[in-house]
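Onboarding guide, step 5: your first structure request.
Type a short instruction followed by the sequence, for example:

Predict the 3D structure of this protein.
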Amino acid sequence: MKTLLLISLTLFSLTKYNAAHAAEKPVTPVPVPKDMLEGTRLVLKSAGASIDLPGPGWSWMTFDKAGQNYLCVNQKTFDMFLVGLAELKHELVAHQPESLVASAKKTQDVRGGKVENDKIEFIETPGTKKSAKVTFTEIDKTKKTNVTVYLFQATNLMLVKVQCSTPNATEPDAFKAIVKSLKFQ
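The system replies with structure tokens like these:
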């Protein structure tokens, strides 16, 4: 009897869990609010930073209400780059970029893939306390994706993350342009 009750409660809990998640709507990117733009520059006030579109045909989108994640999207090719904000608990150290690579390795391992050629280098970026460039190649069953992630610690503890995933061996020129356009106060 106890076993039957336990099974019933477990199934009820799982049903409630699945129903709650099934009710969630897919995330649809929307244009960023106009008050976050200065011309074509996305203004990230909490990080004291701004970043420009790489050229015509690109736009800024967001997909969360918290205002922490943005997409730079090409309306014709649907190429996109991620720009994210996070608050650090302490200064940027090797642990954060290493964790990023470790997370990618775990994800690929679950998918039956792997991560190769991971490289972390701390770089100098004007207006930041510390910056790092992380690169690696994700290889799964059907494709190879080169990932580049820049981590910029603003003068406070805000982290700006700029990410590109591409099948190409090198970073796209548009991605290089937005990284180069990043300005910190």
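Each response can be followed by summary notes, for example: Residues 2-22 form the longest helix (21 residues).
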